Automatic annotation (TrEMBL):
Keywords: Membrane, Signal, Transmembrane, Transmembrane helix. The chain crosses the membrane at residues 285-318, 348-367, 387-405, 417-439, 445-468, 475-496, 522-542. The gene is LOC108744432. PANTHER family: TRANSMEMBRANE 7 SUPERFAMILY MEMBER 3 (PTHR15937:SF3). It comes from Agrilus planipennis (Emerald ash borer). Residues 1-17 form the signal peptide. It comes from the Eukaryota. Residues 404-538 form the TM7S3/TM198-like domain. InterPro entries: TM7S3/TM198-like_dom, TM7SF3. It is found in: Membrane. This is Transmembrane 7 superfamily member 3-like. Its main location: membrane. GO terms for biological process: negative regulation of programmed cell death.
Length: 557
């Protein structure tokens, strides 16, 4: 099979600072039989890569280089010239042979103060194979086989340029793209896992063997642009395959951790970064267990306050997101923008951090805390300030919710049922149906979402005693597991985060959800289920008749 051919680095040798790739033994019959890779260390001096004896059956090849966290430069010339070099951590160039058999490339370290460990690979292709990035209109290199990654705290955007085909024009748009992704191990930012993941995503055969095929939701908008939900801290390797008739070619794989892995490593990307947020997680675990095991003892006080905290946090967070977007779009005066956003809405934000910390707010706040160089006394003052603001917000919302409960006690039961339904609906969309094409439409998404919420609420509300005993179990178990989730380095918390993103983030309906499903995640799901079942059984057995509840206690008054 001539296409998808890899004569890589079992034929490489390093001689006097040069990396030599000799394809003399590669023939049409065995071009794809070589799958070894070559690693080189790049310091201040350039590394010369010589590719020679390219067989006549190959009309072009892709040379690529990958470095862990350090930028490198791959160039056609010893001195990089515009349109003839590529800089980054995952770089590549296309070389059309035009009957020639020998070529020279140059690899440089963009940061002269470090030593970059680099993986190099060369992939040969035939005339029938599409040239990845051959119809480039935007990128700096004429033929751009690499992927461009941009990310923020909510989404990862992967962009490529269209492939070209020998004898066809770029305007014909006759190609198709297959997109793939694999996750690197959770809670691990290391060069070993980084390069292991890349090695699995270089050739077409290897991509299809190891990668998970994704379905691009942006096909109707721009099939060269793919959006993913961001999961900071876990590495993702992205790959694309250009297909034209029987020809196939792979783009250069790209990797991102969706966070500043180079400068902050584990604290910024995985675990709570500061003692304040670690304390919040600890309080959450204790509070969640209290609600699981003893919430039935205070059904009309503690559990109602707990429910009110969550609802209030959701309202405040969504309100702040909406106001922030309005300020960005409509307020031109920077001073006014900062004045409006500095105090009032940040107070709401601190309150939200306390009540919904296990769901979404640690991701935003811990990075800002870790990036502020402060002395210990100043840091302690900031902690006290946050606790003071949080306590003040808690007290105000307790008063409001207790006043509402005093006037309409049935509202508590309705709110708890809806919260349980929202958690279950979020779980189904996160794990099972979130990436279905039909849910690209916001109308379809929210109609089905609220249908699940209502059905769950009705089914649970049909049995009054079951509703009273299990609502605290559901909310308490979820609170406990999501707090543990931060320390475990898993991503169960994104069950709710992605639902809130769908409501507040532009174009998130076009993002591929596909959450990580590794050992830690499965363990967290299983632990949540076990805690929920044990808590419900405990409440049903021990809590029967407690706090004035019985089989005849009315649910609604």
């Amino acid at each position: 099979m001539l296409h998808i051919v890899l004569c890589v680095l079992s034929l490489f040798s390093v001689i006097n600072g040069q990396v030599v790739f000799d394809a003399a033994n590669c023939s049409e019959a065995n071009l794809s039989n070589f799958t070894n890779y070559q690693y080189v260390n790049v310091t201040n001096a350039e590394v010369v890569i010589i590719v020679k004896n390219i067989p006549s059956a190959s009309t072009f090849f892709v040379i690529q280089a990958h470095s862990f966290l350090n930028d490198i430069i791959l160039s056609n010339n010893s001195v990089p010239e515009l349109h003839f070099y590529n800089e980054g951590t995952n770089v590549g160039l296309v070389q059309v042979t035009l009957g020639k058999s020998n070529f020279t490339f140059y690899l440089l370290n963009a940061n002269k103060n470090t030593t970059a460990n680099v993986l190099i690979a060369v992939t040969l292709y035939a005339e029938k194979d599409p040239i990845p990035g051959g119809c480039n209109l935007v990128f700096d290199v004429e033929n751009a086989p690499y992927q461009l990654i941009n990310y923020n705290k909510n989404m990862v955007e992967v962009s490529v340029q269209a492939p070209s085909v020998f004898g066809r024009t770029c305007e014909e748009n006759i190609f198709s793209l297959e997109i793939y992704r694999i996750y690197l191990p959770e809670k691990e930012i290391s060069s070993e896992s980084y390069f292991n993941g890349i090695e699995k995503m270089i050739t077409v055969e290897s991509i299809r063997k190891h990668g998970w095929r994704m379905h691009n939701k942006t096909n109707g908008h721009n099939k060269l642009r793919v959006l993913y939900s961001a999961y900071p801290g876990i590495g993702s390797v992205y790959a694309m395959i250009a297909v034209y008739k029987t020809g196939e070619a792979a783009y250069v794989p790209a990797v991102t951790y969706a966070c500043d892995a180079k400068n902050r490593m584990m604290d910024d990307c995985v675990q709570p970064a500061t003692p304040f947020w670690k304390m919040i997680c600890g309080i959450s675990i204790a509070w969640g267990l209290l609600m699981c095991l003893f919430g039935f003892m205070f059904p009309f006080l503690v559990s109602y306050i707990f429910t009110g905290f969550i609802i209030g946090a959701l309202i405040m967070y969504i309100r702040k997101k909406v106001i922030d977007e309005l300020l960005k779009k409509t307020v031109k005066n920077v001073i006014l923008n900062k004045f409006l956003d500095l105090r009032l809405f940040h107070y709401y934000y601190y309150y939200s951090c306390f009540t919904l910390h296990i769901i979404i707010f640690l991701n935003r706040s811990r990075a800002s805390e870790a990036s502020k160089p402060t002395t210990e006394p100043v840091y302690c003052i900031k902690i006290i300030d946050k606790v003071y603001v949080t306590a003040t917000s808690m007290l105000s919302h307790v008063i409001i919710w207790m006043a509402v409960w005093y006037k309409c006690r049935s509202l508590r039961s309705v709110i708890e049922l809806l919260l349980n339904g929202m958690l279950i609906a979020s779980f189904f969309f996160q794990v099972f149906i979130g990436d279905f094409f039909i849910f690209e439409s916001n109308l379809n998404y929210w109609v089905v979402f609220w249908a699940i919420v209502v059905v769950v609420a009705i089914l649970q509300g049909l049995c009054c005693l079951l509703q009273v005993k299990t609502t605290n179990s559901v909310l308490g178990a979820f609170t406990t597991i999501l707090a543990i989730d931060y320390f475990a380095g898993s991503y169960v918390r994104y069950i709710v985060i992605n639902t809130i993103r769908r409501l507040t983030v532009d174009d998130f309906n076009l993002a591929i959800i596909s959450p990580p499903a590794q050992f830690r995640d499965i363990l967290m799901y299983f632990s949540c289920l076990v805690l929920l079942v044990c808590s419900a059984i405990f409440n049903m057995c021990v809590g029967m008749g407690s706090a004035g509840l019985s089989d005849t206690t009315p649910l609604l008054d």
